[in-house]
Design goal:
homodimer; about 220 residues; alpha+beta; Glutaredoxin; Glutathione S-transferase Yfyf (Class Pi), Chain A, domain 2; 2 domains; 9 helices; about 50% helix
Chain lengths: ~220, ~220
Amino acid sequence: MSEPLQLYSYWRSSAAYRVRIGLNLKGLAYDIVPVHLLHDGGQQHSAEYRGINPQQLVPVLGHGHRRLSQSLAILEYLDEMWPTPALLPSTARERQRVRALALLVACDIHPLNNLRVLQYFEQEWNVPQPERDEWVRHWIVEGLSAAEAMVADHPSTGTYCEGNTPGMADCCLVPQLYNARRFGVDMARFPALQRIEAACLELPEFDAARPERQPDAPEKAR
Amino acid sequence: MSEPLQLYSYWRSSAAYRVRIGLNLKGLAYDIVPVHLLHDGGQQHSAEYRGINPQQLVPVLGHGHRRLSQSLAILEYLDEMWPTPALLPSTARERQRVRALALLVACDIHPLNNLRVLQYFEQEWNVPQPERDEWVRHWIVEGLSAAEAMVADHPSTGTYCEGNTPGMADCCLVPQLYNARRFGVDMARFPALQRIEAACLELPEFDAARPERQPDAPEKAR
């Protein structure tokens, strides 16, 4: 448990952002290993990184000699290894709801809008930038509209997605709202999600995980 | 715990297929509520179904008055409510690996190739069928190549993805290989995955979950 932690991260990756929040909420110290997704033809495609993660994606968490992939599986691992404060609530039913919200973002929004997908459209199909941006916005609006319906007026919703403790769903929601703004999505449709986001970003654990606070963020983004 | 279970399912949905396997492995009885993704403009878009799942996707598990979405969150719920036989192994490190394999399929392959995405390409961008099929195969090959690397020769791999007990990763892998064949992917590149698939499909719990065994499968598919 005292083995050092390293996070292979890219400042603007929303999957890496999730894990940074989780590590911060657990109060764990970690070193950032920057993997630049655009430089050198994408450093995630290097032979060295492929040995760390055959999927050639960030994040990866290094814990001792282990190299752990998939942001949600990493958050579950953190919660099992360092149970307090918990990222998941105490009943199976509540945990199901939190995981479903997290997966809504992690399966049904983010992978559709990932860098590699947008590169495919540009390189294979010559899809112009405005149509690529429209695609991104389409899936964000689809997903966040469902999330808004699942959160607004739900009896389990509190200051955060589930009750009054920030957890796994919040770790996914906040990075996705950052992405939504980046692509110019009209945020007025998501009042409950925005209220939760604001509460999260008041916490130092979320604030320190923001893209613009990262050591590999370019000067102009800070 | 004795409340009845209903699975809102579509015979060929690979996310519903995952949950059918999980329910069968747990030995739980459940009723299938068919949701036809193509009939009536997509029954998942009806007002009634939107009330059940704002995401308008299958599967949903009904358990008493609860309606649970997201296949992996449902599998976790099954594992917590009915712990034996377990879908997840006993150590945090092994669980991380199993969840990462499951998420590799559930986040980084399947959502890219889902019906709604292919409908978007056809209806919004007029992408011809051969290019849509090529897109599907591209992400399957990307994802399964990484899964093959994570499974082949790994010390934790046994008869199944993790050891000699079928679990959550197998619940995701088998439906994804079904999809891969459907789209004509060259399977020879995935010997370890195919070996695990064959072992799984020898089990009655997997066999009964196959698309062609479902009550809503068309006659010609059986």
